[in-house]
Amino acid sequence: MNPSSHQYTTTNTRVLLAKRPTGWPDESCFQIEACAEPECGPQDVTVQAVWLSLDPYLRGRMDAGQSYAPGFALGKPMVSRVVGRVIESRNERFREGDFVWGFLDWALRTVVARGEGLHKIGPELGRPSLAISALGMPGLTAWVGAIELGKPSPGDTVYISSAAGTIGQLAGQFAKRAGARVVGSVGSDDKVDFVLKHCGYDAAFNYKTRDMDDALSELCPKGIDVYLDNVGGTTLEAALRHANVAARFPLCGMISRYNEVKDPGIRGMQLMVSKRIEMTGYIVYDHVHKLPAYQLRAAPWFNAGEMRFHEDIVHGIEQAPTALLGMLKGDALGKKLVQVCAA
To answer: First-to-last CA distance in the chain?
Structure first.
């Protein structure tokens, strides 16, 4: 289409990384900036953001140190998975009105050069936001950890930390479909109720009000066969103490350590040897080629109501920094999203 035929507002809004945190980040690490509208050049695509994804790994990218993903540049926009709608296209692969997802700036509108890295969202996925949550990379992360690396068998005990989070609520349901008994730990009594009533967990406990060893002894009386670790720290140490011989420990994340200035390490690692535990750290980007097959497998379960998934949505791009900080402190139930405009 002729770019001059599309009418925008005159001002865009974006969220920048203003400074690097030391320990816990705060609001001063971010800057909300009004800026000029981006111009759509030849072969480019302009995307109106609808949902921004908030994920724990973003904390690591706020640092300057080396990680599996490059750090964010100071004075530049934060970037995460975004679902948006094409509002202008000079690229034959995309049409105005298409829902797409990609790794985009935290901005109301973004021009994507040559449409590179944009993925169309088909109607078979149902709600478009699922492309960056249950049927996107978070869902694939849960599947790889709980099923491919965890390898649960009927009757196994699967323990999942951060059970009410994006990964936990899905991984628990996947493990249940495999015939396992599923136990989760969460950070509030409301989250205990949520995973028991909505995510199919057999048992769950609030780690803030219960002794970890007492809870695992009671709720995993036959020991732990699979531990999907999302938090690290003392929770991982406790899981090692209660693990069975030949247990599988997929390590998905260690959110309890993301804001530590000094890493205190993990105690009890000698149990890895005596119990012959298979511990595997994994990054979903190593498995991204499996995403289409995962979507074909899992989408019918969600569309049929056989699996449930909760999205914790806040509204307004200006709320993105506060929502990210809250999520890092456990203030989220399910997948945290920022909705920046109507779908």
So the answer is: 22
Cα–Cα distance for residue pair 63/68, rounded to 1 Å:
12
Tell me the two tokens of residue 256. Answer: 């309890």
pLDDT per residue as tens digits for the range 275-287: 999 999 999 999 9
**What confidence score (pLDDT) does residue 3 get?**
37
The sign of the torsion formed by the CA atoms of 237, 238, 242, 244 equals negative
pLDDT per residue as tens digits for the range 220-257: 999 999 999 999 999 999 999 999 999 999 999 887 66
Domains and CATH numbers, the chain: 3-132+310-339 (3.90.180.10), 137-285 (3.40.50.720)
CA distance 156 to 163: 17
> Which residues have CB under 8 Å from 222's CB, separation 6+?
157, 244
- For every residue of 42-62, DSSP letters joined together read TT-EEEEEEEEE--THHHHHT
User: Distance between CA atoms of 118 and 115, rounded to whole angstroms?
Assistant: 6
CB-count exposure of residue 206 (10 Å: 0-12, 13-18, 19+): middle
77-106 core/surface letters (b: 16 or more CB in 10 A; e: else): bbbbbbbbbbbbbbbeebeeebbbbbebbb
The structure tokens 């985009």 sit at 104
β pairing state of 99-105 and 79-89: antiparallel
pLDDT tens figures, 98-114: 999 999 999 999 999 99
Determine the pLDDT at residue 99.
98
Strands, E assignment, 62-108: 79-89, 99-105
